[in-house]
Write the structure tokens for this entry.
Amino acid sequence: MRNFILFIRRFFNLILFLILEIVCVILIEHTNTLQGNDIVSSANMVSGIVYKKQSDVVYYFGLRKMNDSLVNENARLRWQIDQLHSVDTLKDSLVHRTIATLDSSTHIVKFADYLYRTARVINNSTNASDNYITINRGSKDGIAKNMAVISGTGIVGRVEHVSAHFASVLSILSSKQKVSAKLKDGTNGYIIWDEKQPDVLIMTDVPQQVKVKKGDSVYTAIFSIFSPDILIGTVQKTVVVKKNAMQLIYLQSSTNFHNLQYVYVIENKMVTEKKQLEDSTGKK
């Protein structure tokens, strides 16, 4: 208490001056004078600037939560779309009596059941001959070897190594990768990396007579490790290989590997059954 009184005595004149200034400002503000309007306008402007800065700070620190929410929502939407693409409707050819009977003989045949898991990229390379990506999901999150990995814009690679909490993905930018693909007319081929540029892919095994235009889109085929109709890239140019009557199609990759932050790991729950059947018949 004694220190407080000493403080008041020492700065009495300054404190009195500030109090009188505040009183004067309040009196002027509550009048309709030009000065009063200027004070109110200036106060509103300062308040607006402060609130905007506060909003910007809150928005910045909430970006990660918003990104995670959007990625999870995209995963859910992709799953819903694949539920439509992974079924066939077949008619029972043994029954043809009435329209009602034909309707009742329609069967839904499901050939894939995809599950999407979101992950964050925590390491990425683009300059090696075989590039790898590390993600922050592992076996405890349901990640397993050979699962396909995509981004929000296209294919990324496949899971190669898995630990409890992390996984290493062999990027499509690798000499070891070969992905089944299709053109818009249904022509199938394989995608390999150009090995020179991280944003250029090459589609091989395309017959010379197939007409391809610059800007055409190329998608994953139904028998690839990826879910079907995932965008791979757009056609930039074609080169004819005369010795085998084939053409090479150069693509601009739809995935930006320089700025890869979030990915989706795809699990096909029916792939084990499919592989067991193919192994039993000697097919690869």
Notes: The chain has two domains: 2-61, 115-271. Confidence is low (pLDDT under 50) at residues 90-106. The chain is about 35% helix and 35% strand. Residues 2-61 form one domain.
